[in-house]
Fold:
Amino acid sequence: MLGCFLSPGIERKSMSVESTLAELVRIDSRSSVSNLGLINHLLPRVEAAGLCARLFPYADEHGVKKFNLVAVHPRSLADGGEVELAIVGHTDTVPFDPAWAEALTLVERGGKLYGRGACDTKGFIAAALAAIEEADVRRLTRPLALVLTADEEVGCLGAKRLAEARPFSARHAVVGEPTSLRPVRAGKGYCLAEVTLRGREGHSAYPALGASAITRAARLIARVERVAEELKRDAHEAFDPPYTTVNVGLIEGGTAKNVIAGECRFTLEWRPVPGQRPEVVAELVRREAEDLRRGDEDFDCEVRVVRLDGGMETGRDAPIVRALEEATARAAGTISFATEAPQLAELGADAVVFGPGDIRVAHRTGEFVPASELNGAVPILRGLIERFCGPGHQ
Ligand SMILES: [Zn+2]
Structure:
């Protein structure tokens, strides 16, 4: 961990949220490259706003340096100290098609701001910065944190490191993701396993001499469908669809059309509803594999779990949920995609997911955030800062 940076004492003229977003979009911060450029750009601004910033560097699995940034007020907050409100955004974006010439140039058309990350999640970061600057943190009486993470799009890896390092704990958190400015209090988890079936290679003219790994995979996948049906019984009505979903998204196997396949692999992805143990699907699929082995002695199957993130749920009556419902005049909903909210929950927070833009256009070529939502997010976040950290806080 690096120490708190000294404020360079820069007085910045207030920038429009759009121009802040244009600057952020210009800096390429796909998960495959370092986010240092973006962090270096944001640091002086965060410091000038009166927050004390610390960087938490790490090398990703390809050796690329990544940085989480935790900026707090007041400067005197102890390491591991509790903040009242954490505002969290991820700095990385998904890749973009090289044919999208304006991916790194914010372009406005008909009230929509286009650019990679405009919706997910640089728009939220731009709005959060504006809200913090407007709030004037020096007058706040309770601790506030702005948390900028790396590697969200590749498995919330930055947030997981923070949850482990625990540089702070939080009572309430707003996790920025495009929810069209609707508060979201619960989300499904995300889990992934790689399943490998092995058989015996042989000449396809003599099936009895071999055992097809592809046929074995097909039998198991038919059982996966059955598991998916079984999971519907564990309903969580707040979600659409209201149960844990399962997907076999990739399959690969065999070496030639006239060879009995020796190996077949497929991915097994599931999104567990909160309250359900994330391991459940892997256990059920292993049970099915065991059952298949009863009729096929050398049925050889390995289920290797590579990701196991459970769902999250914050109570309907949590103060942060109520506050955002009031501020947006909309009831809190749920989402079926994974966010960093579970890591903030690990850090002690009642977490809500919230931000400008629509998740359905995120990750696409031509992703955009509506300018009205981008600007609309600022007073809402500003109001939360005031409500949870301001002098009037009860
Ligand atoms: Zn995102």
User: Anything to note?
Assistant: The CA atoms of residues 202 and 209 lie 6 Å apart. The mean pLDDT is 94.
